[in-house]
């Protein structure tokens, strides 16, 4: 769907609404249908000032069916996942969950995703964790490793190959 | 003795060693036996951004590992704790999804039922162990200190899921600090985000969030900030210098995990609490030994 569909927006299009619900992985309670654009989500959004994320506008665009535009946008990747928008929505909607769903759609459509998430995913496929054990500094600027502290080994599945195979398949699945 | 599956997630066992050390040191003194979940992985929550089915699978897998041991689960990271609770609720509401996930878990001889309780550090200390028991174990109360609390977004939000404290006016961390002699103050930025979850792709914005929060507490004239979240601690303590550079201010606010403060008040050997790894200037507090003293 693109801008041209604005012309047919005068009448509520139930079929279209259902399609949006389905596309956003059945997030029925969070679907922007009931959003009346009060902007409370954006006024409290942690990423608004620095990264110009506007949750109310994402809700508005989703409601109007501009899912493709959102999926292709950079703004969905600026969410800090603080959940304040959901907390403060007078209509009990959840912009943050809509944003998660949009990001899932971007990944499923094979869009290029920010490198941080790519690295995380690669790392999880490697040993199950989003990052590998790190050498850190102490206050005296000396290097310290996990092994220096008398801590047990980092957890890891016994059969990581099997978990990796399951994960590879899982990333192709949809939630519902 | 209460047995708990210690589910560390990713950030704690790979870099926030001080949190893990103090947990392992302090909790057994409250009759808690921590059982390692050796085969655990990422909770899946950071992958909500990529694929929510994968998130559910990983969460269910970790909970299934704990169920197999027949004990409840303790997740000291609020992001893990929220991810696991969300998965638990989703799988309860959606038997079809649960069956699909279980068919994947079967390949490893695991099964997720949804029978275990989940704890975070905050509710474990405040509600399970309790303020009275904590007060009883204090040997040297940390008097003459005034601290503020950093809860971490996912500790208190969203309130449609079971969180350890109130979403708009959390007070449990303050009460825990008062139980060991520390005075507390609220500050306007208390509920604000540290930026931690966008650090990898929006480094400067994330550090600005952290820097502004530290600056607010510092300008209020407080002695320090107490954390219960490894992502928040990483931003506010481990990266405090970078945050200061980013916002162009000089920051020197001691930031400590609450459980480190508790350990100190209980008279535990400070070298066992990982205090050398706090990169904020914690040794300007009188109760904290400098690195040389600890050695």
What are the defining features of this structure?
heterodimer, A: 176 residues, mainly alpha, Fumarate Reductase Iron-sulfur Protein, Chain B, domain 2, 2 domains, two-stranded antiparallel ribbon, 2 strands, 43% helix, B: 295 residues, alpha/beta, Glutathione S-transferase Yfyf (Class Pi), Chain A, domain 2, Rossmann fold, four-stranded parallel sheet, 8 strands
Task: Give a written overview of the molecule.
The complex is a heterodimer of chains A (176) and B (295). By secondary structure, chain A is an all-alpha fold. Chain A has 2 domains: 106 residues, Fumarate Reductase Iron-sulfur Protein, Chain B, domain 2, CATH 1.10.1060; 56 residues, no CATH class. Chain A is built from 9 helices and 2 strands. In chain A, helix 4 crosses helix 7 and helix 8 packs across helix 9. Chain A is globular and about 60 Å long. Chain A starts with 13 loop residues before the first helix and ends in a 6-residue tail after the last helix. Chain B has 2 domains: 118 residues, Glutathione S-transferase Yfyf (Class Pi), Chain A, domain 2 (Up-down Bundle); 162 residues, Rossmann fold. A 4-stranded parallel beta sheet of chain B has the order 2-1-3-4. In chain B, helix 2 crosses helix 13 and helix 4 crosses helix 5. At the A-B interface, helix 6, helix 7, helix 8, strand 1 and helix 9 of A face helix 1, helix 2, helix 3, helix 5 and helix 10 of B.
